[in-house]
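Q: Could you predict the 3D structure of Major facilitator superfamily (MFS) profile domain-containing protein?
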Amino acid sequence: MSEKVDTITSKAEPAAPSKHSSKEGSIQDGVDIVLPEGVDIALGWFEEMRTIPPGELEAESKAVRRRCDLILMPVICFTYAMQFLDNSVLGYAYAYQLLPDTHMTPGDYNWLASIYYFGYLFWAYPSTLLLQKLPVATYTTSLIFTWGFLTLMCCVANSFAGFAVLRFLLGCLEVGITPTMMIITSSFYKREETPIRNSFWQSSFGSGVVMLSIVSYGLGNSHSSVSNWKLVFLFVGAVTTVWAAVFWWLVPNTPTEARWLTRRQKLVVIHRISTNKIGIQDKKLKPHQIKEALTDPKLWLLTAFQITNGISNSSVSSFASPLIEGFGFSDLDTVLLQMPTGAFVAVIEPILGYIATKIPNTIIYISIAANIPNVAGLFGIRFIDRTPGNKWALLGCTWLQFIFGVTNLFSWTLTASNFAGHTKRSFVNAVIFAAFGVGNLIGPHIFFPREAPVYKSAITGLLVCFGLSVSLHLLH
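A: Sure. Here are the predicted C-alpha coordinates for Major facilitator superfamily (MFS) profile domain-containing protein:
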Protein backbone atom coordinates (compact mmCIF):
# COMPACT_ATOMS: atom_id res chain seq x y z
CA MET A 1 0.00 0.00 0.00
CA SER A 2 1.08 3.60 -0.41
CA GLU A 3 0.04 6.88 1.15
CA LYS A 4 -2.83 7.04 -1.34
CA VAL A 5 -4.76 4.48 0.71
CA ASP A 6 -7.83 6.23 2.14
CA THR A 7 -9.05 5.43 5.63
CA ILE A 8 -12.06 5.51 7.91
CA THR A 9 -12.36 8.15 10.59
CA SER A 10 -14.80 7.79 13.45
CA LYS A 11 -15.95 10.11 16.20
CA ALA A 12 -18.69 7.88 17.54
CA GLU A 13 -16.65 5.03 18.97
CA PRO A 14 -12.95 5.77 19.38
CA ALA A 15 -10.85 2.70 19.00
CA ALA A 16 -7.75 2.00 20.97
CA PRO A 17 -4.89 4.36 20.03
CA SER A 18 -2.31 2.95 17.71
CA LYS A 19 0.91 1.81 19.23
CA HIS A 20 2.70 3.94 16.64
CA SER A 21 3.19 7.50 17.78
CA SER A 22 4.37 8.65 14.36
CA LYS A 23 2.34 8.73 11.17
CA GLU A 24 3.64 5.35 10.16
CA GLY A 25 1.67 2.26 10.97
CA SER A 26 1.22 -1.27 9.83
CA ILE A 27 -2.06 -2.59 8.50
CA GLN A 28 -0.75 -5.75 6.98
CA ASP A 29 2.15 -7.83 8.26
CA GLY A 30 5.38 -6.66 6.72
CA VAL A 31 3.77 -3.73 4.87
CA ASP A 32 4.40 -0.19 6.06
CA ILE A 33 2.17 2.71 5.10
CA VAL A 34 2.46 6.43 5.68
CA LEU A 35 -0.81 7.80 7.03
CA PRO A 36 -2.00 11.41 6.87
CA GLU A 37 -2.72 13.43 9.98
CA GLY A 38 -5.69 12.45 12.09
CA VAL A 39 -6.10 8.78 11.21
CA ASP A 40 -4.81 7.09 14.37
CA ILE A 41 -8.41 6.23 15.29
CA ALA A 42 -8.93 4.55 11.94
CA LEU A 43 -5.68 2.66 12.31
CA GLY A 44 -6.95 1.50 15.70
CA TRP A 45 -10.00 -0.06 14.06
CA PHE A 46 -7.80 -1.85 11.53
CA GLU A 47 -5.44 -3.02 14.26
CA GLU A 48 -8.37 -4.37 16.27
CA MET A 49 -9.75 -6.10 13.19
CA ARG A 50 -6.39 -7.82 12.65
CA THR A 51 -6.63 -9.45 16.09
CA ILE A 52 -9.58 -11.52 14.83
CA PRO A 53 -8.77 -14.57 12.69
CA PRO A 54 -9.76 -13.90 9.03
CA GLY A 55 -11.74 -17.15 8.97
CA GLU A 56 -14.01 -15.87 11.73
CA LEU A 57 -14.54 -12.57 9.95
CA GLU A 58 -15.41 -14.35 6.70
CA ALA A 59 -17.80 -16.68 8.52
CA GLU A 60 -19.72 -13.66 9.83
CA SER A 61 -19.53 -11.72 6.57
CA LYS A 62 -22.81 -12.92 5.03
CA ALA A 63 -24.81 -12.28 8.20
CA VAL A 64 -23.49 -8.72 8.41
CA ARG A 65 -24.18 -8.16 4.72
CA ARG A 66 -27.77 -9.32 5.21
CA ARG A 67 -28.17 -6.89 8.09
CA CYS A 68 -26.94 -4.05 5.88
CA ASP A 69 -29.36 -5.19 3.18
CA LEU A 70 -32.29 -5.18 5.61
CA ILE A 71 -31.59 -1.79 7.20
CA LEU A 72 -29.34 0.34 5.01
CA MET A 73 -30.55 -0.52 1.50
CA PRO A 74 -34.28 0.27 2.07
CA VAL A 75 -33.28 3.70 3.40
CA ILE A 76 -31.06 4.40 0.40
CA CYS A 77 -33.77 3.18 -1.99
CA PHE A 78 -36.50 5.37 -0.50
CA THR A 79 -34.18 8.39 -0.41
CA TYR A 80 -33.30 8.02 -4.07
CA ALA A 81 -36.97 7.55 -4.96
CA MET A 82 -37.89 10.79 -3.18
CA GLN A 83 -35.10 12.67 -4.91
CA PHE A 84 -36.44 11.55 -8.28
CA LEU A 85 -40.04 12.37 -7.34
CA ASP A 86 -39.18 15.86 -6.12
CA ASN A 87 -37.71 16.51 -9.55
CA SER A 88 -40.33 14.74 -11.68
CA VAL A 89 -43.38 16.03 -9.75
CA LEU A 90 -43.35 18.98 -12.15
CA GLY A 91 -44.59 16.67 -14.91
CA TYR A 92 -47.54 15.53 -12.80
CA ALA A 93 -48.35 19.15 -11.98
CA TYR A 94 -48.35 19.86 -15.73
CA ALA A 95 -51.13 17.31 -16.20
CA TYR A 96 -53.19 19.15 -13.54
CA GLN A 97 -53.28 22.50 -15.30
CA LEU A 98 -50.18 24.03 -13.76
CA LEU A 99 -49.56 26.24 -16.79
CA PRO A 100 -53.01 27.89 -17.02
CA ASP A 101 -53.19 28.45 -13.25
CA THR A 102 -49.80 30.19 -13.17
CA HIS A 103 -50.15 31.95 -16.55
CA MET A 104 -47.12 30.16 -17.97
CA THR A 105 -46.55 29.07 -21.57
CA PRO A 106 -45.22 25.74 -22.95
CA GLY A 107 -41.93 27.56 -23.53
CA ASP A 108 -41.83 28.49 -19.84
CA TYR A 109 -42.38 24.83 -18.97
CA ASN A 110 -39.35 23.88 -21.10
CA TRP A 111 -37.26 26.32 -19.12
CA LEU A 112 -38.58 25.07 -15.79
CA ALA A 113 -37.58 21.55 -16.80
CA SER A 114 -34.05 22.66 -17.67
CA ILE A 115 -33.36 25.38 -15.10
CA TYR A 116 -33.21 22.65 -12.47
CA TYR A 117 -30.02 21.54 -14.19
CA PHE A 118 -28.55 25.04 -14.20
CA GLY A 119 -28.59 24.67 -10.43
CA TYR A 120 -27.29 21.13 -10.81
CA LEU A 121 -24.29 22.40 -12.79
CA PHE A 122 -23.75 25.48 -10.65
CA TRP A 123 -23.47 23.46 -7.44
CA ALA A 124 -21.80 20.27 -8.74
CA TYR A 125 -18.25 21.27 -7.81
CA PRO A 126 -19.08 23.02 -4.49
CA SER A 127 -21.10 19.94 -3.57
CA THR A 128 -18.06 17.76 -4.22
CA LEU A 129 -15.91 19.98 -1.97
CA LEU A 130 -18.52 19.85 0.78
CA LEU A 131 -18.79 16.09 0.43
CA GLN A 132 -15.01 15.90 0.77
CA LYS A 133 -15.03 17.96 3.97
CA LEU A 134 -18.32 17.07 5.68
CA PRO A 135 -19.60 13.79 7.13
CA VAL A 136 -21.46 12.13 4.27
CA ALA A 137 -24.66 11.14 6.10
CA THR A 138 -24.96 14.46 7.96
CA TYR A 139 -24.52 16.35 4.70
CA THR A 140 -27.12 14.17 2.97
CA THR A 141 -29.64 14.70 5.79
CA SER A 142 -29.38 18.47 5.37
CA LEU A 143 -29.93 18.11 1.62
CA ILE A 144 -33.05 15.96 2.09
CA PHE A 145 -34.66 18.30 4.60
CA THR A 146 -33.97 21.44 2.57
CA TRP A 147 -35.16 20.07 -0.76
CA GLY A 148 -38.34 18.80 0.92
CA PHE A 149 -38.99 22.31 2.25
CA LEU A 150 -38.40 23.84 -1.19
CA THR A 151 -40.84 21.35 -2.75
CA LEU A 152 -43.45 22.50 -0.24
CA MET A 153 -42.74 26.10 -1.24
CA CYS A 154 -43.75 25.28 -4.83
CA CYS A 155 -47.35 25.40 -3.56
CA VAL A 156 -47.13 29.16 -3.05
CA ALA A 157 -45.31 29.95 -6.30
CA ASN A 158 -47.70 31.59 -8.74
CA SER A 159 -45.47 32.69 -11.59
CA PHE A 160 -42.62 31.54 -13.80
CA ALA A 161 -40.11 33.58 -11.77
CA GLY A 162 -41.10 31.93 -8.49
CA PHE A 163 -40.95 28.43 -9.91
CA ALA A 164 -37.66 29.17 -11.68
CA VAL A 165 -35.95 30.17 -8.41
CA LEU A 166 -37.24 27.09 -6.60
CA ARG A 167 -36.29 24.74 -9.43
CA PHE A 168 -32.78 26.22 -9.55
CA LEU A 169 -32.31 25.72 -5.81
CA LEU A 170 -33.66 22.17 -6.01
CA GLY A 171 -31.04 21.40 -8.65
CA CYS A 172 -28.31 22.76 -6.36
CA LEU A 173 -29.42 20.46 -3.56
CA GLU A 174 -30.18 17.27 -5.42
CA VAL A 175 -26.89 17.16 -7.37
CA GLY A 176 -25.30 15.73 -4.24
CA ILE A 177 -27.69 12.83 -3.68
CA THR A 178 -26.45 10.23 -6.15
CA PRO A 179 -22.74 10.70 -5.24
CA THR A 180 -23.56 10.35 -1.55
CA MET A 181 -25.62 7.22 -2.16
CA MET A 182 -22.73 5.70 -4.11
CA ILE A 183 -20.21 6.56 -1.40
CA ILE A 184 -22.42 5.14 1.34
CA THR A 185 -22.99 1.94 -0.65
CA SER A 186 -19.29 1.44 -1.37
CA SER A 187 -18.54 2.00 2.34
CA PHE A 188 -20.54 -1.09 3.35
CA TYR A 189 -20.20 -3.53 0.44
CA LYS A 190 -17.50 -5.30 -1.50
CA ARG A 191 -16.78 -4.12 -5.01
CA GLU A 192 -18.43 -7.17 -6.60
CA GLU A 193 -21.55 -6.63 -4.47
CA THR A 194 -22.17 -3.02 -5.50
CA PRO A 195 -23.61 -3.39 -9.05
CA ILE A 196 -26.76 -5.21 -7.97
CA ARG A 197 -27.27 -2.95 -4.97
CA ASN A 198 -26.71 0.15 -7.05
CA SER A 199 -29.29 -1.24 -9.47
CA PHE A 200 -31.76 -1.68 -6.62
CA TRP A 201 -31.58 1.86 -5.35
CA GLN A 202 -31.35 3.26 -8.87
CA SER A 203 -34.48 1.33 -9.85
CA SER A 204 -36.31 2.47 -6.72
CA PHE A 205 -37.40 5.57 -8.57
CA GLY A 206 -39.63 3.18 -10.51
CA SER A 207 -41.45 2.27 -7.30
CA GLY A 208 -41.65 5.97 -6.56
CA VAL A 209 -43.28 6.62 -9.93
CA VAL A 210 -45.88 3.94 -9.19
CA MET A 211 -46.58 5.48 -5.78
CA LEU A 212 -46.76 9.05 -7.09
CA SER A 213 -49.02 8.04 -9.98
CA ILE A 214 -51.49 6.40 -7.60
CA VAL A 215 -51.37 9.26 -5.08
CA SER A 216 -51.63 11.91 -7.80
CA TYR A 217 -54.61 10.12 -9.32
CA GLY A 218 -56.28 10.05 -5.91
CA LEU A 219 -55.53 13.73 -5.30
CA GLY A 220 -56.91 14.52 -8.73
CA ASN A 221 -60.24 13.04 -7.62
CA SER A 222 -60.27 14.82 -4.25
CA HIS A 223 -62.49 17.76 -5.34
CA SER A 224 -60.58 19.95 -2.91
CA SER A 225 -60.68 23.76 -2.99
CA VAL A 226 -56.88 23.59 -3.34
CA SER A 227 -55.62 23.08 -6.89
CA ASN A 228 -54.68 19.49 -7.67
CA TRP A 229 -51.14 20.42 -8.71
CA LYS A 230 -50.61 22.12 -5.34
CA LEU A 231 -51.79 19.01 -3.50
CA VAL A 232 -49.18 16.94 -5.35
CA PHE A 233 -46.39 19.32 -4.31
CA LEU A 234 -47.69 19.32 -0.72
CA PHE A 235 -47.68 15.54 -0.49
CA VAL A 236 -44.19 15.02 -1.94
CA GLY A 237 -42.65 17.92 0.02
CA ALA A 238 -44.15 16.82 3.35
CA VAL A 239 -43.03 13.20 2.98
CA THR A 240 -39.50 14.28 2.01
CA THR A 241 -39.13 16.67 4.95
CA VAL A 242 -40.19 14.02 7.47
CA TRP A 243 -37.94 11.45 5.82
CA ALA A 244 -34.86 13.55 6.61
CA ALA A 245 -35.20 12.61 10.30
CA VAL A 246 -35.45 8.91 9.47
CA PHE A 247 -32.35 9.10 7.27
CA TRP A 248 -30.37 10.92 9.97
CA TRP A 249 -31.19 8.22 12.53
CA LEU A 250 -30.43 5.18 10.39
CA VAL A 251 -27.57 6.14 8.06
CA PRO A 252 -24.10 6.59 9.63
CA ASN A 253 -21.26 8.76 8.38
CA THR A 254 -18.97 5.71 8.47
CA PRO A 255 -19.55 2.02 9.27
CA THR A 256 -18.02 2.59 12.71
CA GLU A 257 -20.89 4.94 13.61
CA ALA A 258 -23.79 2.65 12.63
CA ARG A 259 -26.31 2.46 15.49
CA TRP A 260 -27.63 -0.86 14.19
CA LEU A 261 -24.26 -2.68 14.14
CA THR A 262 -22.43 -4.11 17.13
CA ARG A 263 -18.74 -3.36 17.50
CA ARG A 264 -17.94 -6.84 16.24
CA GLN A 265 -20.14 -6.34 13.18
CA LYS A 266 -18.44 -3.01 12.45
CA LEU A 267 -15.09 -4.80 12.39
CA VAL A 268 -16.55 -7.34 9.98
CA VAL A 269 -17.67 -4.51 7.68
CA ILE A 270 -14.18 -3.01 7.76
CA HIS A 271 -12.72 -6.41 6.91
CA ARG A 272 -15.15 -6.81 4.01
CA ILE A 273 -14.51 -3.45 2.36
CA SER A 274 -10.75 -3.54 2.97
CA THR A 275 -10.60 -5.93 0.01
CA ASN A 276 -11.92 -3.22 -2.33
CA LYS A 277 -8.59 -1.38 -2.32
CA ILE A 278 -10.35 1.78 -3.44
CA GLY A 279 -10.38 3.61 -0.12
CA ILE A 280 -13.12 4.34 2.37
CA GLN A 281 -12.97 7.94 3.50
CA ASP A 282 -10.32 10.62 3.81
CA LYS A 283 -11.40 14.24 4.15
CA LYS A 284 -8.04 15.57 2.89
CA LEU A 285 -8.12 16.86 -0.69
CA LYS A 286 -5.37 15.24 -2.78
CA PRO A 287 -4.55 17.29 -5.94
CA HIS A 288 -2.42 14.52 -7.49
CA GLN A 289 -5.50 12.27 -7.68
CA ILE A 290 -7.37 14.97 -9.63
CA LYS A 291 -4.48 15.19 -12.11
CA GLU A 292 -4.52 11.43 -12.54
CA ALA A 293 -8.25 11.50 -13.26
CA LEU A 294 -7.90 14.21 -15.91
CA THR A 295 -5.44 12.07 -17.87
CA ASP A 296 -7.59 8.94 -17.76
CA PRO A 297 -9.46 8.33 -21.08
CA LYS A 298 -12.23 6.51 -19.21
CA LEU A 299 -13.24 9.80 -17.61
CA TRP A 300 -13.83 11.48 -20.97
CA LEU A 301 -15.73 8.52 -22.42
CA LEU A 302 -18.01 8.54 -19.39
CA THR A 303 -18.41 12.31 -19.72
CA ALA A 304 -19.52 12.10 -23.35
CA PHE A 305 -21.87 9.26 -22.52
CA GLN A 306 -23.45 11.15 -19.64
CA ILE A 307 -24.22 14.12 -21.90
CA THR A 308 -26.19 11.93 -24.30
CA ASN A 309 -27.82 10.10 -21.41
CA GLY A 310 -28.76 13.37 -19.73
CA ILE A 311 -30.56 14.56 -22.85
CA SER A 312 -32.60 11.36 -22.84
CA ASN A 313 -33.27 11.54 -19.09
CA SER A 314 -34.75 15.04 -18.97
CA SER A 315 -36.72 14.41 -22.15
CA VAL A 316 -38.34 11.26 -20.80
CA SER A 317 -38.97 12.49 -17.24
CA SER A 318 -40.25 15.96 -18.15
CA PHE A 319 -42.22 15.24 -21.31
CA ALA A 320 -43.94 11.95 -20.56
CA SER A 321 -47.09 13.86 -19.54
CA PRO A 322 -47.23 16.12 -22.64
CA LEU A 323 -46.64 13.13 -24.93
CA ILE A 324 -49.28 10.91 -23.30
CA GLU A 325 -51.79 13.74 -23.20
CA GLY A 326 -51.05 14.38 -26.88
CA PHE A 327 -52.03 10.79 -27.74
CA GLY A 328 -55.61 11.64 -26.71
CA PHE A 329 -55.80 10.74 -22.99
CA SER A 330 -57.48 12.86 -20.30
CA ASP A 331 -55.63 14.67 -17.50
CA LEU A 332 -56.42 11.99 -14.91
CA ASP A 333 -55.61 9.15 -17.30
CA THR A 334 -52.31 10.83 -18.19
CA VAL A 335 -51.27 10.74 -14.52
CA LEU A 336 -52.38 7.16 -13.90
CA LEU A 337 -50.93 5.76 -17.14
CA GLN A 338 -47.40 6.71 -16.06
CA MET A 339 -47.57 4.05 -13.37
CA PRO A 340 -46.47 1.12 -15.64
CA THR A 341 -43.27 2.98 -16.51
CA GLY A 342 -42.25 2.80 -12.86
CA ALA A 343 -43.17 -0.87 -12.66
CA PHE A 344 -40.96 -1.63 -15.68
CA VAL A 345 -38.00 0.09 -14.06
CA ALA A 346 -38.58 -1.45 -10.61
CA VAL A 347 -38.54 -4.98 -12.08
CA ILE A 348 -36.13 -4.84 -15.02
CA GLU A 349 -33.23 -2.84 -13.59
CA PRO A 350 -32.61 -5.11 -10.55
CA ILE A 351 -32.71 -8.13 -12.86
CA LEU A 352 -30.10 -6.59 -15.15
CA GLY A 353 -28.03 -5.59 -12.12
CA TYR A 354 -28.20 -9.17 -10.84
CA ILE A 355 -27.00 -10.49 -14.21
CA ALA A 356 -24.11 -8.00 -14.17
CA THR A 357 -23.16 -9.20 -10.70
CA LYS A 358 -23.28 -12.92 -11.52
CA ILE A 359 -21.62 -12.75 -14.94
CA PRO A 360 -18.37 -10.74 -14.84
CA ASN A 361 -17.52 -8.13 -17.47
CA THR A 362 -21.04 -7.89 -18.89
CA ILE A 363 -21.96 -4.35 -17.88
CA ILE A 364 -21.14 -2.85 -21.28
CA TYR A 365 -23.09 -5.50 -23.20
CA ILE A 366 -26.12 -5.24 -20.93
CA SER A 367 -26.11 -1.45 -21.33
CA ILE A 368 -26.08 -1.79 -25.11
CA ALA A 369 -28.92 -4.32 -25.03
CA ALA A 370 -30.95 -2.02 -22.76
CA ASN A 371 -30.95 0.62 -25.48
CA ILE A 372 -32.85 -1.63 -27.92
CA PRO A 373 -36.32 -1.12 -26.33
CA ASN A 374 -35.71 2.64 -26.22
CA VAL A 375 -34.90 2.81 -29.91
CA ALA A 376 -37.86 0.57 -30.82
CA GLY A 377 -40.21 2.74 -28.78
CA LEU A 378 -38.93 5.96 -30.34
CA PHE A 379 -39.41 4.57 -33.84
CA GLY A 380 -42.99 3.75 -32.87
CA ILE A 381 -43.68 7.24 -31.49
CA ARG A 382 -42.11 8.79 -34.57
CA PHE A 383 -43.84 6.78 -37.28
CA ILE A 384 -47.15 5.41 -35.91
CA ASP A 385 -50.06 7.57 -37.05
CA ARG A 386 -51.61 9.77 -34.36
CA THR A 387 -55.14 8.41 -34.56
CA PRO A 388 -57.51 7.48 -31.68
CA GLY A 389 -57.17 3.81 -32.59
CA ASN A 390 -53.38 3.95 -32.18
CA LYS A 391 -53.16 5.77 -28.85
CA TRP A 392 -52.57 2.60 -26.82
CA ALA A 393 -49.77 1.49 -29.15
CA LEU A 394 -48.20 4.92 -28.84
CA LEU A 395 -48.55 4.71 -25.06
CA GLY A 396 -46.75 1.35 -25.03
CA CYS A 397 -43.89 2.88 -27.02
CA THR A 398 -43.63 5.63 -24.40
CA TRP A 399 -43.42 3.11 -21.58
CA LEU A 400 -40.39 1.52 -23.24
CA GLN A 401 -38.40 4.76 -22.88
CA PHE A 402 -37.91 4.40 -19.14
CA ILE A 403 -35.73 1.29 -19.43
CA PHE A 404 -32.77 3.48 -20.49
CA GLY A 405 -32.02 4.28 -16.84
CA VAL A 406 -30.02 1.08 -16.41
CA THR A 407 -27.32 2.43 -18.75
CA ASN A 408 -26.92 5.46 -16.51
CA LEU A 409 -26.74 3.23 -13.46
CA PHE A 410 -23.96 1.13 -14.92
CA SER A 411 -21.92 4.19 -15.87
CA TRP A 412 -22.01 5.24 -12.20
CA THR A 413 -21.06 1.71 -11.17
CA LEU A 414 -18.05 1.85 -13.49
CA THR A 415 -17.03 5.11 -11.84
CA ALA A 416 -17.27 3.75 -8.31
CA SER A 417 -15.41 0.55 -9.18
CA ASN A 418 -12.63 1.74 -11.50
CA PHE A 419 -11.26 4.92 -9.96
CA ALA A 420 -9.15 4.43 -6.84
CA GLY A 421 -8.82 7.05 -4.12
CA HIS A 422 -11.55 9.03 -2.39
CA THR A 423 -10.51 12.37 -3.91
CA LYS A 424 -10.30 10.91 -7.42
CA ARG A 425 -13.68 9.19 -7.14
CA SER A 426 -15.28 12.35 -5.78
CA PHE A 427 -13.78 14.43 -8.59
CA VAL A 428 -14.78 11.95 -11.30
CA ASN A 429 -18.28 11.82 -9.85
CA ALA A 430 -18.47 15.61 -10.03
CA VAL A 431 -17.33 15.67 -13.66
CA ILE A 432 -19.71 13.01 -14.94
CA PHE A 433 -22.64 14.40 -12.96
CA ALA A 434 -21.87 17.83 -14.39
CA ALA A 435 -21.92 16.25 -17.84
CA PHE A 436 -25.20 14.59 -16.95
CA GLY A 437 -26.48 18.03 -15.95
CA VAL A 438 -25.44 19.54 -19.28
CA GLY A 439 -27.35 16.85 -21.13
CA ASN A 440 -30.41 17.32 -18.94
CA LEU A 441 -30.27 21.04 -19.53
CA ILE A 442 -30.27 20.50 -23.30
CA GLY A 443 -33.03 17.86 -23.36
CA PRO A 444 -36.17 19.99 -22.78
CA HIS A 445 -35.15 22.45 -25.49
CA ILE A 446 -35.30 19.89 -28.29
CA PHE A 447 -39.07 19.75 -27.64
CA PHE A 448 -40.18 22.75 -29.70
CA PRO A 449 -43.61 24.06 -28.57
CA ARG A 450 -44.61 24.65 -32.21
CA GLU A 451 -44.31 20.89 -32.84
CA ALA A 452 -46.59 19.85 -29.95
CA PRO A 453 -47.93 17.27 -29.42
CA VAL A 454 -45.92 15.28 -32.02
CA TYR A 455 -42.42 16.67 -31.32
CA LYS A 456 -40.83 15.13 -34.42
CA SER A 457 -37.50 16.93 -33.96
CA ALA A 458 -37.23 15.80 -30.34
CA ILE A 459 -37.90 12.15 -31.19
CA THR A 460 -35.29 12.26 -33.96
CA GLY A 461 -32.79 13.86 -31.58
CA LEU A 462 -33.37 11.14 -28.99
CA LEU A 463 -32.74 8.46 -31.61
CA VAL A 464 -29.38 10.11 -32.34
CA CYS A 465 -28.57 10.20 -28.61
CA PHE A 466 -29.23 6.50 -28.17
CA GLY A 467 -27.08 5.75 -31.22
CA LEU A 468 -24.21 7.74 -29.72
CA SER A 469 -24.73 5.98 -26.39
CA VAL A 470 -24.22 2.58 -28.02
CA SER A 471 -21.11 3.82 -29.85
CA LEU A 472 -19.54 5.19 -26.66
CA HIS A 473 -20.19 1.92 -24.87
CA LEU A 474 -18.37 0.04 -27.62
CA LEU A 475 -15.38 2.38 -27.24
CA HIS A 476 -15.18 1.95 -23.46
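Q: Anything worth pointing out?
A: The radius of gyration is 23 Å.
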